[in-house]
């Protein structure tokens, strides 16, 4: 028996060096710590990164296994840390200044009460770009309740419309952490991610509205009082900033980033006045940098808050600090996911998975990667509940294969939108968004499972279908 021990140990060592075994161990650690031990996602991801690093081959540059985790964590923070922190400040300032409220009221005024569901969806769609989903839902749910008081009907449709608009851009359009991290992991230009993410999100939101109307007819759910939530008094019209001012923190950075993307694309494709483009390219590369663009938007949002609420500098500083505290947690989780993905790269997960999808038909291989990303993200979402963690982990995992346009047959941005679509699938009791929707709207758990959960499946599947369609219609390069 003892003489067989070396053979047994050798077999165990070989199995632990298998990339798929390492991948399974890493994912098991993430899911197990989050679901069963109720550990914060950052601790789960960084623990998994360290374990994977220990199992992976040693680095050839002399960096030890623990140092490379710290280096990968730092690299991830350098890519997304500033943007997430600034986006948190923008969202907080827009909420406190009344800028977000102005956008919502304008949608309702333009579309009218008969189209209130589209107004609520549009408000959620726009506001969830710089503001986290839970905050958007907190802002808009009083409007849904107010509309029900005046119409005495369609409460579920109003609530689901908010969820449809907020959830879809939260998972597809930067600078929210999930899409931002996917763009960084997959090497996708941020301007392109914003444009294509919004392009994929819009039809999904419209289909979400249609499903909301259907669910509203199938389930007659009245508005109920929510004891834990006291609705704030609505601000007067003269207390709100103008629509132009309110939209500036959202529209301006998008225009700046998109301008840089457009100039670079035209230079690369040899389109347009090349001499002029070459001269302005250094300028657009600065103003179109995501860190700089959001810094400008942050300054504008802080000025709006400062003037609109007549704050002292001390109170303004306190508001910014509160926003940074919430943003800091997201930065840690996102960077932890980046470190985990980098360690999977070291463990040679990419080549191992890539070998499973080798084919002579590039387009077929590319579509296989889309469905793979969608499926992995969906499984992770069902297992641990967080769309952000599912997006970060899946994109980091697929980034190990060094995917590019030649390999896929289309732009990698579509792989990012497929992963984002998958991260919507299977929201239930382990998802904080489920409980926000359920408790804030006054629905029972059963009612939420029959409305919120299918709604997100509809959003995810529509997003995937739109993504697949775009790979044929507009593959880019």
From TrEMBL:
Subcellular location(s) per record: Cell membrane
Topology class, membrane: Multi-pass membrane protein
Coiled coil, from the record: none
GO cellular component labels: plasma membrane
Domain of life, source organism: Bacteria
Alphabetic keyword roster: Cell membrane, Membrane, Transmembrane, Transmembrane helix, Transport
GO molecular function term, any single one: gluconate transmembrane transporter activity
Cross-referenced InterPro entries: Glcn_transporter
Membrane-spanning ranges: 20-48, 69-90, 118-143, 155-173, 193-214, 243-263, 283-306, 327-349, 369-392, 413-437, 452-474
UniProt similarity note: Belongs to the GntP permease family.
Protein name: Gnt-II system L-idonate transporter
